[in-house]
Amino acid sequence: MAKTWCYAILGPSGAGKSTLADPLVRFYDPGSGMIRLDGHDLRELSLAGLRESVVLLDQSPYLFQASVRENLAYGRSDATDAERGQTLSAGERPHCDCARDARQS
Q1: Which of 51, 63, 44 is CA-nearest to residue 27?
Q2: How far is CA 45 from each of CA 38, 50, 59, 79, 84, rounded to the nearest angstrom?
Q3: What DSSP assignment string belongs to 2-29?
Q4: Sign of dihedral through CA atoms 37, 41, 42, 47?
Q5: Measured distance CA(69)–CA(71) in Å, rounded
Q6: What is the pLDDT of residues 69-85, one digit of tens each?
Q7: What residue ranges do the domains of the chain occupy?
Q8: Taking the chain, what is the end-to-end CA distance rounded to the nearest angstrom?
Q9: 33: alpha, beta or left, given left = phi > 0 and alpha = psi -120 to 50?
């Protein structure tokens, strides 16, 4: 894979996209062997740096039992409120709207 390129893993439900993607961001490490990125074992790389470089868009959004602010801060805790508002994509806004509505009910 070339550096600075954007790659997408696409496929129908059940095709194994999450099975492939989850270990790439170290949601879990392989039981044996290793995954290498640019020749480096992922376990040798900074977990924060690795996760800042990868975006996962699951089919079903997951919201923690916390405020919308805390859910948005989970990925980047040092972001200001203004930055968080500016970085919401069109796909993310409805999820936050749903969370806000659920908290108000």
Answers
A1: 51
A2: 11, 7, 27, 23, 26
A3: -TT--------TTSSHHHHHHHHTTSS-
A4: negative
A5: 5
A6: 777 777 666 767 666 65
A7: 17-52, 68-104
A8: 47
A9: left
**10 Å Cβ neighbour count for 42?**
17
Higher pLDDT, 90 or 41: 41
CA atoms within 13 A on the CB side of 18: 8
Cβ 77 vs Cβ 85: under 8 Å: no
Strands (E), the chain: 36-37, 40-41
Distances (CA, A) of 78 to 7, 32, 60: 26, 35, 26
Residue 52 CA to residue 25 CA, distance in Å, equals 9
Q: Which 8-state DSSP code applies to residue 43?
A: G
E strands in 8-104: 36-37, 40-41
Distance, CA of 72 to CA of 92 (rounded, Å): 10
Per-residue pLDDT for 103 more than 60?
no
